[in-house]
Amino acid sequence: MTASGRGRAGAKVVLLGEHAVVYDRPALAAGVPIHLDAEAWPGRGPRLEADGPADERGAALVGQAAAAVGLDPGAWIVRVRSEIPPGRGLGSSAALCVATLRALADAAGRPLPRADELALGRRLEVLFHGTPSGIDPAAASLGCSLRFRRGEPPEVTPLSLAAALPLVIAWGGEARRTAGAVGGLRERWMQDRACYEALFDAVADLVNAGERALVAGDLAAFGRACDENQRLLEAMGVSSPDVEARIALARGAGALGAKLTGGGAGGAIIAVAPDGDAVERALRAAGATVLRVLVPAAR
Ligand code: MEV
Prior knowledge:
The protein has 299 residues and is of the alpha+beta class. It has two domains: 154 residues, Ribosomal Protein S5, domain 2 (2-Layer Sandwich), CATH 3.30.230.10; 131 residues, 2-Layer Sandwich (Alpha-Beta Plaits). Helices cover 43% and strands 23% of the residues. It has nine helices and ten strands. The strands form two sheets. Strands 1, 2, 3, 4, 5 and 6 form a six-stranded mixed sheet that branches. The chain has a four-stranded antiparallel sheet with strand order 8-9-7-10. Helix 6 packs antiparallel against helix 7. The protein is globular, with a radius of gyration of 19 Å. The N and C termini lie far apart (39 Å). The mean pLDDT is 94.
């Protein structure tokens, strides 16, 4: 009898360095404890069953993931249930790729080594985001805070923070696509490489400063790095007025720093908020959905 299989992967936030990470600069990310669950079973496929409209990319994902773990690509159906809001920069596509891979690997009776999961996760994510760096599947795969730098293989280093990091994550009703933000930035970069490369270098310096702050437990310095990163993301053209309005509200309510997270162009923000109640109230009053997270200190 052929077995069915299950897999789970989590959401993520990019703490510092999104977009520049596509251009080989380092970035920091953290896992977020909301999840996507996948169940795979034999049947006429490939097919992905999810809430929401069916999409041919889902079938391609199931077929490619099945083949990658040595299964017949035409003979599997995967059903997903997700707590991760799509189109908000919280890594729903990467969680879908990693959870689908895990479910099919479970069905095949051969759990994937981490290095293979990272490489395959990134390859599958291309179905959803033209030129991903791989940071999203790395965060979905590890589920902890990490430093990432793209490459073959990527550098993925779990971080040990000196103190837990209190974040308020907030997003609005409008979904957007990371692929659009990444593609738009690529066009601007091709027009003026020197300008954008300088912005990416400045982001890399901030990522290093932010990492030092987290490892030292200096939340105020990390908050300043977030604010400065947001300024650079605005200069790259990947921010948006609704995101900036939420950031202003969070700062006004006492956040130590705030920025967009992930693809931008709308989507979620993160605010560093040791006393998050006032920040949460201000964002909810403006209609945002809010998630409070304490990124754990030690791994
Ligand atoms: C998306 O979470 C992060 C981006 O840098 C894209 C990527 O690295 O694949 C915008």
